[in-house]
Amino acid sequence: MLRYDSKNQTATILPGPIIQHFLKDNADGQYEGFPSLGVEFQITLDDQFREYLGLKKDQQGVYVSGVSKGGSAEKIGLKEEDIILEMNGFKVDSRGDYKDPKYGTLNMSHIVRGSSYVDDELKVKVLREGKEQTLTGKLTRKSPKDFLVAPYLFDRGTNFLVMGGLIFQELSIPFLQSFGNDWETSAPLRLVHVAKHTDDYEKEGKRKIVILAAASPPAAPRATSAWAVRL
Questions:
Q1: Strands (E), 31-120
Q2: Rounded CA gap, 78 and 66, in Å?
Q3: Strand 160-163 and strand 104-107: pairing?
Q4: What pLDDT, on the 0 to 100 scale, is given for residue 30?
Q5: Which terminus of the chain is more exposed, N or C, with fewer CB under 10 A?
Q6: How far is CA 51 from the centre of its chain?
Q7: pLDDT digits (tens, 9 = 90+) for 142-172
């Protein structure tokens, strides 16, 4: 148990299989971390959307709306507009779930992050332009330093520069999360949008997003954290 809220009677629990995954991975002294697929997907429950995609009544799966640069999905050959039908032999339904033989209905992300390890083989059956095909490749884990916007900063602080009373720092998800649990709406919307849509910046060869995080009153009293620079 990681956290318990007695007032609301809710708890946050770390499942045993995740702990086992960590211990097994770390047994040789070289921790690889949990692999990731690197896709954004949309459910396919809407009848009009299914008709647009050309899905038959008995076909299920999820629509790939985005593929992260350098992730497992890109290396395997997944493309935007593919429809994921199966992963490692498990059929994926229109919500992105599958039937796990031990735990029942789970999100398909568990196939990658829960039961697989870095360098394990992944087989994905997709529907592409009306034809089924199977893509095969190895799972990878993208290092946090390779993200345009760092997803976490567990083992280091953020990079920053103080100049003329202005504080510049790299944009990161932890910075946005500092605005509270509802950071997706309470943080500066421009920065939230940048953090969630990094593909265009990466295609331009940008490596990091630097923001003006704070300013001392004498230097720039009207500066705000919504200003960003692409590097």
A1: 39-42, 62-67, 83-87, 90-91, 97-100, 104-107
A2: 10
A3: unpaired
A4: 85
A5: N
A6: 28
A7: 877 788 888 888 777 888 888 888 989 999 9
